[in-house]
Design a protein that fits this description.
Helix content: under 10%
Radius of gyration: 14 Å
CATH class: Mainly Beta
Shape: globular
Largest sheet: 6 strands, antiparallel, barrel
Order of helices and strands: EEEEEE
Length: about 110
């Protein structure tokens, strides 16, 4: 299976990781990583997370294993900043071709 064409991967996001909270509940981010050549598609869907809570998905991010850069290992505790909005990662879905990981589909919730 061919990689997702670069001409479709038109967005750039910032991934915020190593999140900690101070005594007042304000979040601070230890690492900010700019990821280019991803695609954000608006999506409205209600899902049930691992804690059995309803979460409204606002978007779906596609991260191609070949054309998106830099290489990054996403975690569900990371946050995604895109166009001034801060999104939580609701789910990570790994999509494989016949032999290896092809791309990630990442559910974004406001």
């Amino acid at each position: 299976m061919k990689p997702i064409p670069r001409m479709l991967l038109i967005h750039t996001v910032t991934v915020l990781s190593d999140i900690s909270k101070d005594t007042w509940g304000n979040e601070t981010f230890g690492t900010k990583t700019v990821i280019s050549n991803v695609r954000i598609e608006p999506k409205s869907k209600l899902i049930i997370d691992k804690q059995n809570n309803q979460v409204k998905i606002s978007g779906l991010m596609f991260y191609d294993m070949v054309n998106s850069s830099p290489a990054y290992s996403f975690e569900e505790t990371d946050k995604i900043e895109f166009h001034g909005n801060m999104y939580n990662i609701a789910f990570l879905k790994k999509q494989y071709d016949a032999n290896k990981l092809h791309h990630l589909e990442i559910g974004l919730a406001l």
